[in-house]
Amino acid sequence: MKDLHIQLIDPTEQRLGANFTFGFREPILVEGLQKLANQWLKLFLTPKGTHPWRRKEGTNFLYLVGGNVDDPDTVQTAVLEYIEDATTQLKNIQVRQLALPDTERLLSVSLLQFVQVETLSFDIWVRVTNTAGSTLDVLIPYARAED
Amino acid sequence: MADYNINERDVEESATLLRDVLATRAQQRGLTRDYSESSVLGGTIVDGHATVFALLRNQAREIQNRLSLRDVQRLPDGESARDAADAILSNFFRTRDEGRFAKGVATLHFTQRVDALVPRRTRFFKTSQLVYYVDGPADVLISANNMRPNLDASGRVIDYVVQLNLTAARVGQAYNQPSGRFLAVDPFSPFLSFAENNAPFAFGEDLQSTAAFIATSENALSLRAIVNARANDSLLRGELFPEIQTLLTVNYGDPEMQRDLASDPASGVALHVGGHADLYVRLQTQEVVERMVVEDPTPRPDGLVTVLRDPAPPSGSFIVAGVAPGDILVIASGTPNAPFQYVVRGVRAGELEISPRVPFEVATEEETPVPSIRYTVGNNYPAFDNKGGNGPSSTIVTSRRISQYNCGLLPGGPVYRVKQVEVIDAPPLLDPYRDAVTGNVVFTDRRNTAVVGVPTPGTALGFRVLCKNPQEAQSQRAVTLVEIGWPAYDFAGLTLEVTYETVVGFSAIADYVSDDFNRTLGANPLVRAFHPVYVSFTLPYRPRIVPRNTLEVFNPAATFTVDVETVERAVIDYVTATPFGSRPDTGGIGQAAKDADANIAATYPFTLNYALLAPDGRVFRYATDDIVSVAPDGRTSSARLLNPGDFGLPPTGYYAALARLLQQQGVSDRTVRYLAVADDVALEQRGV
Fold first, then answer.
1. How many Å apart are CA B506 and CA B284, to the nearest integer?
2. Which terminus of chain A, N or C, has fewer Cβ atoms within 10 Å?
């Protein structure tokens, strides 16, 4: 089953909380591993408590952005925790979806790269793996408040 | 979300529905779209619209619920359900009963006998929430002359009292407060010490509930006329007089319908000829006081002209002339239908009373000029003149005014329990019979037979209630007499005060139904109050025991306190509220007591006494150990008649004869209602 593709906005044009678009010209439908990565990203970037009724859905990742971070070393630990949280939530959802193909069923998400590029700016890459064994490396987008 | 009446569950359900709709629709179009919980489409389209969709769904559901009365009456009785019911039923020109104001009488106590002006807006506080006002459109001036001294046992003046009618500030049953002092009164006189109500406030009714409004509207589409049971119920109870709690129409062929029977004396066959309808109404009861002069000629409430009055009868008195009931009175001239013959039913010195079945055509004493009547009376066929005659003379008149030896005539209307009968201006000759407290001659013993001997002073004095037209008893046409005293003493001219219970708002209903414009053409409808059955009993009970620990085992058991007054009120309410078609029983009374106070651990078997005030004025006294029945059969209940001898019935095996006797008066379990009063209900603690 196809899902709507969410595409990264040019990093220079991203605003806080506005990292994606449904399409630069027209919406695109995707399936398979890309669809899976989209869904994980959506869940990862949903701030906890903002869903109208599934209050525990999402992670606290976006609360880091613009947050009062004293020690950059703690950020990686927090990001790891959020990745784990999002992965667990998506797996729990997919448990109820019996007809899901292996290409769209999540196996794991691992932190591939965590690099501090400025004082408090990071490149965060994760690797999404489905139960079919395929992987996709994904850059986690975010924009700082002052951007 | 509270303002919009949706919750998270509604939103979640709406999301699930949206998901199903979108997925199904995509599938029908041959597309594969993922609207699942984790998908981007689901998150944006489904989750994004679920809240609005839930709001619209709930509104649609609410509108749907309010389209049908069936659904409206299942809703909580809130403002929107009320609005919906009002709107739907307004299509049938039905309006909700807006409730009633509680009414009562306050006794004001003053320290000095000085005029007082009670402004209309003076507030009488029963509680901080329950306020009463003067029942009237204007300020009330209480004159010092109207203040009655309140004496103590030694005859010393405690204070001065006056009574004032009050009405509740708002409608509602909450204002039916029991007797007791008022918490506060707006100051209007420096001499007012306190105010109290000695009788409970009554007649307060809440705004009609939506369920009741719908229930009373079930027959709203029937014809708006007094033509059948459905229409009667709809028009009278449902529309015009919502204070009617129950309405029963008895008519053609019903065993209780006795007014339309045409009987053949030879064969004993009685046939319903139709055309009559008795409309029994159940209304709230009320105590009233009536004063009348004993033996004062008073118009019959049914308007029939049954008396021939002659100031100079043959031999100076009809009695001396030997006229007897059964003789024939011949009016030879002076009335429109003369000559005509009438059957004599009662004989007094200057009066003959004829059978009400064939009354005189006119009351000549009311005509101007008074026509001259000539008559004869006797038992010698065909002349009927062997016991005398008189006239023509204009002093001989026919009259609708009746009087009877030692009797006072009550106003036409239902007469329930007669609480007190007293002569308030008794001459010194009756001093031995005066009540020590009131100073009046008080009659307390209601009897079924006349008092024949001179009573011993100090014993309870007897009185009787007689209805001369039992087939119209408990109606506006009822001719109800209260007979006092004993044959040897003529109470004529003395003032009789009778305190009795009747029903509230009866005359308005009776007037409406009998009005020529409203009643069905050719019909003879009669509004009647249900025949009362008064229940009395002593309920034995055991209170709950306070649990003790083992160290206290030698102490006497302590019990929880039972609120006796509340329980008594609850069991009275149980009896009084017995629904139409059912009867009170001992089990129900016990249960009502336990429901009223959880500190009652058990109730024990007891005997229920009850008294049917029959249409003819006699009292049928019964007892039962289980369920009440006015016509017991000796098989399905333990109900038994305690005074069969009063009605000529044998002590046992009277069941069929009793049923027949009651049927002849139109009494059955359908045409009675059950009442209980605080004086006749008691609780008795047992076991501890």
1. 10
2. C
